[in-house]
UniProtKB/TrEMBL annotation:
This is Chemotaxis protein CheA. The keyword ATP-binding applies. The keyword Nucleotide-binding applies. It comes from Pseudorhodoferax aquiterrae. Residues 221-429 form the Histidine kinase domain.
Amino acid sequence: MAAPAPAPVAAAPVAAPAEPLPPGMRRLTIHIGPLPQPELADALQDLFRDIPGLGTMTPLECAQPDRRIYSVVTGSTNEDLLDLFVFHVAKELVDIREEGGAPAEDPIAAEEARAAALDQAAAQGRPAAAPVPESESFGFFQEPPAQAPAAPVRAAGTPAAPAAAAAGGAGGAASQSSLEATSIRVAVSKVDQIINLVGELVITQAMLAQNSRALDPALHQQLFAGLADLDRNTRDLQESVMSIRMIPMSFVFNRFPRMLRDLANKLGKKVDFVTQGEATELDKGLVEKITDPLTHLVRNSCDHGIEMPADRLKAGKPEHGTITLAASHQGGSIVIEVRDDGKGLSREKILAKARERGLNVSDSMPDSEVWQLIFAPGFSTAEVVTDVSGRGVGMDVVKRNIAALGGTVDIDSDFGRGMKVSVRLPLTLAIMDGMSVRVGDEVYILPLSAVVESFQVQDDAVSTVAQGAQLVKVRDEFMPVIELERLFQVPPSTDNGGSGIMVVVESEGSRAALLVSELLGQHQVVVKNLESNYRKVANVSGATILGDGKVALILDIGALVRRSRH
């Protein structure tokens, strides 16, 4: 009966299982999949080949064609490996295990997870609970007490044990029963269903409001009072429902202090980490997708931006560098900034690297265009490829991921003083405030957050410049004019009497004037995804259903303003 005992050895086609490992190294088995394109995982072997000291990765046989299995010998933590893998395969598809088959013990990551849970629980005045997959459900709690502003987290040196975490842990058992009475966990699908239903309610309310305009308010006073109450209650309801999907940016920011502290210690640097605007809220779906690009930006600031302590002292700077992560609402968007007081970008080095790669550049290019060069695929000014950054998954991947969310990335740098990367994202709420305008016989929706003002324009106020472009002067400022009728090839209306109306819109710090036929009014609109139901349309961000049942396009103000610049 003892004969079958060697069977477990079959699961180890590794070179020599009994071979002792160097100090600090671990032997892991990594399962990846299922993948729609399994060959994507093969790129992970290139990371282990190109990054010195990362370790070795050996492919193992796998009976399932949509999966990959690898034997890995490395000294990196699970979190570092996942941060490397995420640009090729999603984290949830990676299963890291000790070679014996048990989940890999990653003491550093495990301790960080426990500490983060305690910190978060203490900050919210609740005990740390067993983690529940965020993609499956929401946890709703009573409004936590206002928390004091967090002090800067020093990323170098020995961190002090947070007293709040200890207090939270001590009082956790006592408050558990009251917590259960004030919280409920709901599936995300149910929340989305409620949001869709509220959207349909808004459309119905708009239809009733539009149809009632033909009635005499004096004869139907009670009906108009009821419609006014319906309008107010519908708005309050949609704001309450939409807030359910909104979670504070602290859920993203909380993961960075420990990561940055370990990274700074690894690089031998001294870094202070400061967060601002943690209470700024963003849609849950975006919060999950913005984490990885922000992680790469913070790592870049620490690795490329902040200098070594001795170099900072020589430059007359304090020994500790500062990395700031800030979030704020600007109009209908959220802006997340990653700032550092390091050495900034070198214009000469970027131009030299661009010429080396055969890019068309010149010394007369403005700084803003030079900084955009670092978004070119595979562009890196790192002299040494490390497992921190400069690993072939650079800023081009970050920009592509953010663009997929409908966002933009801008860079501002001052050589020797630091740099700032600004990520602008739409709030992507299902319902928004819009201004409806008529262009010919068509109706378009402008996001109200982008509208600055409107005015009647006379023909002599518009000037034509080179290549047929038009400018209008508004209080000593010339703005490009965008004729929506010509842009969307709308047939002219038969009742287009008098001069047109200009609507001044603003996006990314620039303004443009849209020429429309008539302003129809301001109201709430339900945003429908045009791309998933039809296809992507230039200069259009979505569509909505009007009160009379017609479909109106929601204009992409950012795209229109960028178009006017060129």
